[in-house]
Amino acid sequence: MDMVLVSTLSQGIKAHLGFEFRLTKGKPYQSIFQHDINYCSLIRGAQESIYRRWFTSMLKVGNFATSCPIGKGYYYLHGWTLDANYVPSFFYLGDYRISGRFFYGRFKKKEDNPMLECSVEAVLN
Predict the structure, then answer these.
(1) For the chain, which terminal residue's Cβ has fewer other Cβ atoms within 10 angstroms, N or C?
(2) Which domain holds residue 7?
(3) How many CA atoms lie within 13 A of 42 on its CB side?
């Protein structure tokens, strides 16, 4: 992943994460859970969580900001693989899609104005 942030992201940015799962290719993804997080709290390590462990592992092969505000510039993540120790035991083997929407204020499915949208597809086997 390569991205260029064209304007500074200030304190208060949040992320809405959606996790979807499917057993086999050709079947539709099923939503399994959604979660909102305060992104600035996550990156400064205010609370240990699975997301914080994932983020910390990404820093080994990426240059993400580690404090807020997040300045303009080039950010990347190259060659990241998730260590099996960071995969919750309740995750089934299969295909996953994790989508993220970064926003300010409250998350609204139909009326929000996201700052960034992204998704990651992965296979757990």
Answers:
(1) C
(2) 2-124
(3) 20
Are 21 and 30 contacting, i.e. CB atoms less than 8 angstroms apart? yes
Structurally, the chain folds into a number of domains equal to 1
Angle ∠(66,72,78) on CA atoms, nearest 5: 60
CATH number for the domain harbouring residue 50: 2.60.40
Q: How far is CA 57 from CA 1, 32, 50, 81, 99, in A?
A: 15, 24, 11, 9, 18
Buried b (16+ CB within 10 A) or exposed e, 98-110: ebbbbbeeeeeee
CA–CA dist 25, 32 (Å, integer)? 17
| 113, pLDDT greater than 90 | no
Q: Give the rounded distance of the alpha carbon of 125 from its chain centre.
A: 21
The tokens for 104 are 């300010």
Q: What is the pTM of this model?
A: 0.82
Give me the pLDDT at residue 109, please.
65
